[in-house]
């Protein structure tokens, strides 16, 4: 406090220039925030002199980036089509997570039509679809109550015939099916760079380098990433992926597009009191705690996985107007609503996470 008053006195005495000189002098000795190679190129960094930067290259017919539902389904279908036509193709799939499904985060309520097309015998194969939807509930929340909204046939919120799943488990199962068909899966390898031919077409991808210190210097264990070249490269890396952004820039793909709208989805997994557990129940809400200018809503799914589990979450559109809005805090407020809190009372949160989402809407 004394220092603040002293500074005010100096300002009153027109000594502000002196303060500025002092501040500039104090910041002059501050080191650079980062020396990472993405900011300071390696060819201009003496720490990288003499380091072997040669990459080993592999050839494939198809390279797929991202082992989510889309990437794995594409890999599986390619191998199925190759088998139908008595062809032999090499399909390689890279995934940044250490295990297939480890980075998959979703509610999720699954409409199984695509799975039926991919594997008509998915039940016999043991696909982890254990919870058919038995009940749909939709409502508009106010601060103290819930206004029920009827779900009419034909509306998107009708989930009859769908399944509540733990999507990470389903993705892990899809990975097993892909490997059985001969897909080469490389978990723990993040695709870091898009490679291009001289004519500008996509050549493939390069995986991330390993053995780099936090400040961007090479460790003794430094290894260059692997190049994967392919006739076709499929990018299934998910929402707002960094490789997709490289492609947007290279090919000016968003020149005639309106801006994509995004959301943030926050999810938690709870074990609850068995008396409050209703396997197959699907609940969605809009409204409180968000105002009418903010897009978003909630989900609460009762899973049937052998124990009283519920998956619950909150989605907030990232175009919200209030700069002080905190999506995580709004999620916590929603959990204390009089119609939500009773379900969670006496329960335990066992997992949580968040993920960016592509949002739709009229464009």
Automatic annotation (TrEMBL):
One of its GO terms (molecular function) is electron-transferring-flavoprotein dehydrogenase activity. Its cofactor is FAD; [4Fe-4S] cluster. It catalyses: a ubiquinone + reduced [electron-transfer flavoprotein] = a ubiquinol + oxidized [electron-transfer flavoprotein] + H(+). Pfam families: ETFQO_UQ-bd, Pyr_redox_2. The keyword Flavoprotein applies. Residues 262-357 form the ETF-QO/FixC ubiquinone-binding domain. Residues 61-112 form the FAD/NAD(P)-binding domain. GO terms for cellular component: mitochondrial inner membrane. It is an enzyme of class 1 (oxidoreductase). Its EC number is 1.5.5.1. InterPro entries: ETF-QO, ETF-QO/FixC_UQ-bd, FAD/NAD-bd_sf, FAD/NAD-binding_dom. Binds 1 [4Fe-4S] cluster. Keywords: Electron transport, FAD, Flavoprotein, Iron, Iron-sulfur, Metal-binding, Oxidoreductase, Transport, Ubiquinone. Accepts electrons from ETF and reduces ubiquinone. This is Electron transfer flavoprotein-ubiquinone oxidoreductase. It comes from Neodrepanis coruscans.
């Amino acid at each position: 406090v004394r220092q603040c008053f002293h500074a005010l006195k100096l300002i009153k005495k027109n000594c502000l220039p002196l303060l500025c000189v002092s501040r500039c002098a104090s910041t002059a000795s501050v080191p650079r925030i980062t020396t990472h190679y993405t900011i300071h190129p390696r060819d201009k960094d003496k720490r990288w002199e003499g380091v072997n930067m040669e990459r080993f290259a592999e050839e494939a017919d198809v390279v797929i980036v991202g082992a989510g539902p889309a990437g794995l389904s594409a890999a599986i279908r390619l191998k199925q089509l190759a088998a139908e036509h008595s062809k032999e193709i090499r399909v390689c799939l890279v995934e940044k997570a250490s295990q297939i499904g480890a980075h998959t985060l979703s509610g999720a309520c699954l409409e199984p039509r695509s799975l039926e097309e991919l594997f008509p015998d998915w039940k016999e194969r043991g696909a982890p679809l254990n919870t058919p939807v038995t009940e749909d509930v939709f409502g508009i929340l106010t601060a103290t109550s819930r206004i029920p909204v009827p779900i009419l046939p034909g509306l998107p919120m009708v989930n009859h015939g769908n399944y509540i799943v733990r999507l990470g488990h389903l993705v892990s199962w899809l990975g097993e099916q892909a490997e059985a068909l001969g897909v080469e899966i490389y978990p723990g390898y993040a695709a870091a760079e898009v490679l291009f031919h001289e004519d500008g077409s996509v050549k493939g991808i390069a995986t991330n380098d390993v053995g780099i210190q936090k400040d961007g210097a090479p460790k003794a264990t430094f290894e260059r990433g692997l190049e994967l070249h392919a006739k076709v490269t499929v990018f299934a890396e998910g929402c707002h992926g960094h490789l997709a952004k490289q492609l947007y820039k290279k090919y000016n793909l968003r020149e005639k597009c309106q801006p994509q709208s995004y959301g943030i989805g926050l999810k938690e997994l709870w074990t609850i009191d068995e008396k409050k557990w209703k396997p197959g129940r699907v609940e969605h809400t809009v409204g409180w705690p968000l105002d009418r200018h903010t897009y978003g809503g909630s989900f609460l799914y009762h899973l049937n996985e052998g124990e009283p589990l519920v998956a619950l979450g909150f989605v907030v559109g990232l175009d919200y107007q209030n700069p002080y809005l905190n999506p995580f805090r709004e999620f916590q407020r929603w959990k204390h609503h009089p119609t939500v809190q009773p379900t969670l009372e006496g329960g335990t949160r066992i997992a949580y996470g968040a993920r960016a989402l592509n949002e739709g809407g009229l464009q």
